[in-house]
Automatic annotation (TrEMBL), chain A:
The lineage of its organism: Eukaryota, Viridiplantae, Streptophyta, Embryophyta, Tracheophyta. Residues 510-602 form the Vps16 C-terminal domain. This is Vacuolar protein sorting-associated protein 16. Belongs to the VPS16 family. Residues 8-413 form the Vps16 N-terminal domain. PANTHER family: VACUOLAR PROTEIN SORTING VPS16, VACUOLAR PROTEIN SORTING-ASSOCIATED PROTEIN 16 HOMOLOG.
Automatic annotation (TrEMBL), chain B:
The gene is VPS33_1. This is Vacuolar protein-sorting-associated protein 33. It holds the Pfam family Sec1. Belongs to the STXBP/unc-18/SEC1 family. The lineage of its organism: Eukaryota, Viridiplantae, Streptophyta, Embryophyta, Tracheophyta. SUPFAM superfamilies: Sec1/munc18-like (SM) proteins.
Amino acid sequence: MANVSVAAEWQLLYNRYYRKPELYPMRWKHVDLARHKVAAAPFGGPVAVIRDDSKIVQLHAESALRKLRLFNSAGHPLADTVWRHPGGRLIGMSWTDDLTLVCVVQDGTIYRYDLHAQLIEPNISMGKECFEQNVADCAFWGNGIVCITEQNQLFCIPDFRNPKPVPLADPMIEEPPRCIAVIEPQYTMSGNVEVLLGVADDPVVLVVEEDGVQRLGEDLLRGPLQKMVVSRDGKWLASFTHDGRLLVTTSDLTGVIIERECESALPPEQIAWCGMDAVLLYWDDMLLMMGPDGDPVHYLYDEPIILIPECDGVRILSNTSMEFLQRVPDSTVSIFTIGSTSPAALLYDALDHFDRRSAKADENLRLIKPSLPEAVEACVDAAGHEFDASRQRTLLRAASYGQAFCSNFQRDRIQEMCKILRVLNAVRNPKIGIPLSIQQYKLLSPSVLIGRLINAHRHLLALRISEYLGMNQEVVIMHWACSKITASLSIPDATLLEILLDKLKLCKGISYAAVAAHADKNGRRKLAAMLVDHEPRSSKQVPLLLSIGEEDTALMKATESGDTDLVYLVLFHIWQKRQSLEFFGTIQARPLARDLFISYAR
Amino acid sequence: MAQIPNLDNAPINLISIREQSQKELINILKNIRGKKCLVIDPKLGDSLSLIIQTSLLKEHGVELRHLSADHIQTDCTKVVYLVRSQPNLMRYICFNIHHDESKGLQREYHVYFVPRRTVACEKVLEEEKLHNTVTIAEYPLYIVPMDEDVLSFELDLAYKECQVDGDTSSLWHIAKAIHKLEFSFGLIPNVRAKGKASVRVADILNRMQAEEPVNSSDMVMPEINTLILLDREVDMVTPLCSQLTYEGLLDEFLNIKNGSVEIDASIMGLQQEGKKTKVPLNSTDKLFKEIRDLNFEVVVQILRQKATSMKQDYTEMTTTSQSVSELKDFVKKLNSLPEITRHINLAQHLTTFTSKPSFLGQLDMEHTIVESQSYDICFDYIEELIQKQEPLTMVLRLLILFSITNSGLPKKHFDYLRRELLHSYGFEHMATLNNLEKAGLFKKQESRSNWLTIKRALQLVVEDTDTANPNDISYVFSGYAPLSIRLIQHAIRSGWRPVEEILKLLPGPHLETKRGAFSNSPSFDSLSGVSNGIAKVPDGRRALVLVVFVGGVTFAEISALRFLCSQEGMAYDLIIATTKIVNGQTLVETFMEKLG
């Protein structure tokens, strides 16, 4: 039966089921994660890959120059660029919340790339000390970075939008820390970032802030920590101790939640939280999932993997595939567990009978009559969590089949879910490659998703989605128009104008002046002049006309608008720019301008 | 200050407008910490006194000063200038700051422009190299509620600027103010305008709507149904005639300023010799509300009646024994005593002016001119006034009235009167005469006058006007029905269409449009027809018409509109907005140019 095969893919960890569906086979070729440094963005974001210069690798036919390559989550190439930056080794790279790739090199310079592998100027420097002492290691979070120098000094940039390096307190340690983790500013008491350092040969965790260092866990730890990771909400700390134990504590190290022996005393290569209730440890070819109790789950991999923590699970990236390891949602469990007799499971079964024209369908329905609404709700919910479109459809059909028999169910629930799923399926398409789960989608919010799509130049899809969800399309069209201007240097002005107007008119109240300003910045003055003509707001139109040197039109438009202030603006502009004789000639023909100038001159 | 009018009975929520302005001003003061010296330009100060109490300003650590060419003496290190955006006021500020600099005083300067910063003003600061020293911001005060049904844009020079200087800034200001009202009360669906400036305002208003639309998608009924815009240029006759309503006369002789008059304390029966006292005049005063719009003759009678009945009550009180409830009624009546005394004092003061033969002669002449029958008598009278060197404004008033009703004077007379004027009053009045000519108020005759046609068609002169029980607006001028109000009467009742022929005789184009979602709904067309009940807002209130006078309005006209409003069968409430409340004298004064 279908139900059995679904549940057969699950693994039981203590009392919870976990599943690991494959999201995509990776479409990339000749990418060996073992030889590369990899940065993957959460929320199904892109993957950046560059050959790791700290490893000795054999170059086969490839050039000695390193290439930074960007892929989407399905391994579809987005862009690449040759890495030629000075400044020593690449220490770390990561994606920020707004999907810029930040790369830190040894001398403390930070290079930023956008999704199209274009370098974003200017480069940021971590400061003089970093330059002199060399950056040894770094840790990232949403929009910030902490660097530790070879002399164990810490510097952080709390927000890349305002890239000012801030020195943190001196941890006063001799040797480099064994491990480093950060608690994001939004989860700390002070509102500033807290850096956790696992110190060599000292059973303590140092908490470094801007204005002081604390020692935590002295009475809790029996030895130095080898590896640690903070949970997504900043409350828990999972760490791997010197003697091969996994230790889960509160992030202020006051209480132990879980303490479990692992099979190896060697520190794992990677450690990550899977949702909020399991921790993943990865050694060379083994992935171990530890829950609060019961036997850990083993997964074996014969190729290197990268763990990408998400809010509701972990994505596992390997050379050949992208998988998503998550706890099986409760609604899905209730439907697909082997031998489940929950109302939802019976409803699902009823649909199966109904499709096979079996009378048992009715019998099933009768059985669950009083709890039909919950059963429908469970089916809808389970459909939302599925990645497979056909299974989504079956579950939704089961829900709508059940709904027909229950009068008091909120009918728009199904409709709403269909809407969300259509959006999710659209962005999950391997070409787009954003494998969002429904929970991630809700956390990310549709507007951010649209922002990400337009940044990736997926304007049509973004437009369709925002139209479908009833959101304002102005952002999308505006961005499209600007990108179009940038990208089409070879198209003549008149043609381009037509193309642009065709789309701009879709959205009422869009600022033509803003698009025109962009055109002007790209050196297309004539196009700007033509565009600005369509701007209805004179207060925006006139200054722009002046900046592109169309004084006469500006004067005409200002006079038409009736706003004398705008007329003055133009007058003073012309007065400064032209010979006085010419100026008087210009205003002589325009009574309002002339009269205004006279009353000003009085 | 008791001057702040009570707006509780306003047909739309004017209180919210005033409170908004209050809050904005207080926020400005709050944002500048510590003690500060608030320097206000005097005219703006007058307007602000209708918005906010001085005591409230003082609560926010403010020392008040008026802006002038003199430097400001204060201990505060923070100086806040609150000025209308006029370049000449900038010069004062520059004087002030330069003076402080020369004394080595370190101060923090903030300049708040009312209603908005303008390039011209910033240019002045820039030329004086002060634009980095001062912090520039805006205080968006576009509209000041004067009374329950009167709004003012406080643009006292608007008419002259438009007509003489060609500076149309005020039109933008008016449109912006109306647009702001629309944001609070909904898009006004019907617009009627007459006159060049008014049509331009309607045009700018539409432009603003296109640029920054008021959300009309939600099908809420807009609170204001119709907007009527009227140029002062269309009817210059009315403001030049002497107003004969109580409030109008008070304004003519005592000059009402921001809802109060300032007179000698002795007139009000106070014992302080030689001191001035301020008497507030607005609808908060119940008795004033009752009598302000009546013809002065009637007012005197009413006051007499009130006094007699009071006296009667009093005698009854002393002679017979009274029950407690009757006593209570009497005491209640006594409460209105101060109001009665106040108005009796004022009325008595007014009669000293109105009984003067010169005033009666002037009234007589105004009527003769308006009747437009005997050209020579009028000409001789004005000539005589000039020879007698009567006050110039009074002479100009009659002269303009004369010129307008004849659509200019024949060249010979025009030149002659000009020469006579300059000879008797001095050459420095050349500029004034020039201004008047530019504005078309005192000019050479170019075409035949159509005043007679207009007068007849609109029934502007009504014989046998009963001032005590009026049945027509003509009571406000004891026989002359103001042209402006007649036009509005038509505009409200049936739109422009039936009077189109007459409108063509008056200066400027006219316009009638529907806007927004209502522009193509047929059910709303009936509005312009004879509409009883249809125009009523569902909750039983009457629909609202906003009448905007571009270039000023007189109290007599306001009274006439209030009279229209109170007539039976009138389906609308009226709200009046104006650039400034004017009378013949103040209007003429704006055209006077001081040379040297």
